[in-house]
Amino acid sequence: MKAAFSIMALCFAAACGGAGGSGGSIDSRVDAPSSMVVQSVNAVRSSSDRTFAGMLNSVRAVNGSEPVFVDTHLVAAAQGHADDMFTRDYFSHINERDAHLRTPADRAVAAGYGSGFVAENIGWGYSDEESVLVGWVESPGHQANNIDPRFEDFGLAKAGTGSNQYWVLMLGRD
Could you tell me the pTM of the whole model? Predict the structure, then answer.
């Protein structure tokens, strides 16, 4: 069985536990105000821009945050972690096997992002970008990352197929 862990920022502050979303694994412990969750889910589903960036930025907008933009370094860091989780069949923010890529911050720096502030959302079992984003919106800790006004950049990646897809969203400010 896959262990589920939640958000991890540079300082490893996290809120973990449970499951949520439409068929995938994501964790949360704290309940978000339901009206903001509904508004955020509606923002995902009604976004006129159906790209992940468009849907994420719609969520950020209804929560008063500026848009984030794709950063190729964060995409590379996210893809490396998604591929590693898929290949080695684990679900965690911590890479126990590779010391220099152990944490989200390690992976961002190794990919050339710098030593800025980063956070990571992970998900497993979601079929598409909309469903994993809705899962993250419905998880208070992940949603805190989604809408954190300090972030300026993001990278999204997935590995796997069908119901065995690993998703990684890295958000940062370099």
Answer: 0.81
Range 52-73 burial, b when 16+ CB lie within 10 A, else e: bbebbbbbbeebebeebeebeb
Rounded to 5 degrees, φ, ψ at 96 are -75, -20
Helix, coil or strand: residue 117 = strand
- Tens of pLDDT, residue by residue over 43-101, are 999 999 999 999 999 999 999 999 999 999 999 999 999 999 999 999 999 887 876 67
Q: Tens digits of per-residue pLDDT, 119-158?
A: 999 999 999 999 999 999 999 999 999 999 999 999 999 9
Q: Which two tokens stand for residue 87?
A: 């290949």
**Strands 8-9 and 117-124, bridge-based pairing:** antiparallel
| 15-to-8, 18, 108, 114, 141 alpha-carbon distances in Å | 8, 10, 21, 25, 6
CB neighbours of residue 1 within 10 Å: 5
| 136: number of Cβ within 10 Å | 31
CB atoms inside a 10 Å sphere around CB 104: 29
| Residue that the structure tokens 């469903």 belong to | 131
DSSP helix/strand/coil, 113: coil
